[in-house]
């Protein structure tokens, strides 16, 4: 089958934040959805390689800040292109804390949701967290940024890229080389070789 | 908290179809996401009151047809505003069958995905189906319809509605009466009273 069909599924974009002791961290996810209204619960799928994943598994709490169409590529780079294990991602970010003590972004987001994990599903590479929504606030009337909007309007065009290599069509990461290994996984967004195209 | 924050989460829109023996059926869902790339798996949340839900629980297979921006309100009415228990929803719909024998829509959709359930999570009002993607095809280059697009461009405006009552801000269903019971559930889209507003 043509794996490009998977790109037709629409998603929002979110900064998923957690707090463990005095350590704040966050990452970018596109996989969040409300799964029941009574009780108000959401499900998020998070790659196990993310430090934020481990913090949520430990603490059972998180926020999602819902990115809107004013979101800058720098915010995606900050939260998606490095690990919170060896950096403080919050240094250059404007944020507040919700009642659970976890950060949420005050800029480039139109709302945040606080949630408390009620169950987890091990999906192999990812964990699905099912969580009660405990709090939330609308921050602006800007339209939410969809994944399609990110690709068309936020992600820089690849025109300045080097000539030999492959670009991840998901996040823009560039693999330099003549051949992309079949089992290559994007170090940034964890998508497989099938989501890369030659430069 | 302001429950309107939940409306800031972006979704696509899908016709979820199943087949039990010779009976074809389908319903509208907005809750579908890819949860892992290796293996290629999706998760969908489906209200238990939907006949399609019971068919998937029994057969373990389904398709999702990904609605694009050409989708008509009539298609939402056909799949969302009546039950397949006492009607044949496929009568006026253009469709083909994928390899699993299940229908997919050939019009108003830009792709379909076939999937086989590998696990279920009981969420109370809904079941979360986690499923292996087994097949799929791109049908058009039209942009996918998001939930926000549906609200702005597909759902009819409420201007011709009667003067007394409450409208479901999710699907447009109108409850006629002076008072909306607190525990009211929309008979069409199953959303709670908090998603209604006075006409």
From TrEMBL, chains A, B:
Keywords: Flavoprotein. It comes from the Bacteria. The keyword Kinase does not apply. Its cofactor is FMN. It holds the Pfam family RUBY_RBDX. GO terms for molecular function: FMN binding; iron ion binding; oxidoreductase activity, acting on the CH-NH group of donors, NAD or NADP as acceptor. Residues 163-199 form the Rubredoxin-like domain. InterPro entries: Flavin_Rdtase-like_dom, Flavoredoxin, Rubredoxin-like_dom, RUBY_RBDX, Split_barrel_FMN-bd. Gene3D superfamilies: 2.20.28.10, Electron Transport, Fmn-binding Protein, Chain A (2.30.110.10). Belongs to the flavoredoxin family. This is Flavin reductase. It comes from Treponema peruense.
